[in-house]
Amino acid sequence: MRRLCADTGFLGRPIDPVFEDRELFADYLTGYYLNLEPDATLVCEVNGVVMGYLMGCRRPIRNQTYHAFANLWIAARAVYRCFARNYSASSREFMRWIAFNAWREIPAAPRFIPHFHINLLAEARSVRNTRLLIQSFLELLHRAGHTQVCGQMVTYESRRNDELFERYGFRVMHRAEITKYRRSFPGRVFLSTLVKDLSAGPALAVVRRPRRP
């Protein structure tokens, strides 16, 4: 899971050109999910090889408490490693973004409902695999009595537009431009917060739009 996190951390590609410390990157993004809610982590296997995952959180208060302390420890390690390992210019730039811009650019999200994030290697990326992971997690939440879920998805160029999310019952709550990739990616990159109501059931039913005359 940690390797997959690093292998997909830069817009679906390896994070290394943006931030070289794969261990610290994986600690930041997967620590809570793998240590405290591994039962809410789902994997995608292709021919017996794990090639993607969905990491979910069903206990948002626990998640926020964990990060309040864990992020301080990760920040201290990052500062130490920056000098001890002589990070590259791109890695230092990434750290500056985390320190001074991340808190302003990450879009708002509901604090008290379950959430998830999903990553797949390029060879496993398909509508079918993505649907299976998300649908399985929604069914898990519905069985536990949860009535809402949110997720945050990266969008850029024509990838993952509003119509795609709305087709599967997600509402775009908020979107913000993420500037950390400006030196490495030519286009604008956004992070969107999506919310789905589960009170009527967990199905990812396609919402058909009326045809235009």
Helix/strand-derived category reads alpha+beta
Mean pLDDT: 90
What is the total tally of β strands?
Answer: 6
Using only CA atoms, what is the Rg?
18 Å
The major sheet is characterized as:
6 strands, mixed
CATH fold category name of the domain at 2-147: Aminopeptidase
Report the end-to-end length measured between terminal Cα atoms: 48 Å
Sequence stretches where pLDDT stays below 50 over 5 or more residues: 209-213
Determine the fraction of residues in helical runs and give it as a percent range. 25-40%
State the CATH superfamily name of the domain at 2-147. Gcn5-related N-acetyltransferase (GNAT)
CATH architecture of the domain at 2-147: 3-Layer(aba) Sandwich
Morphology call: globular
What can you tell me about this protein's structure?
The protein is α+β, with helices and mostly antiparallel strands and 213 residues long. The chain has a domain at 2-147: 3-Layer(aba) Sandwich (Aminopeptidase). It has helices at 2-7, 22-36, 60-84, 89-100, 102-105, 127-143, 162-167; strands at residues 41-46, 49-57, 115-120, 148-156, 170-177, 189-197. It has a 6-stranded mixed beta sheet with strand order 1-2-3-4-6-5, sandwiched between helices. Helix 2 (22-36) runs antiparallel to helix 3 (60-84).
Give a quick set of tags describing it.
single chain, 213 residues, alpha+beta, Aminopeptidase, 6-stranded mixed β-sheet, 22% strand, disordered C terminus
Write a short abstract of this structure:
By secondary structure, the chain is an alpha+beta fold.
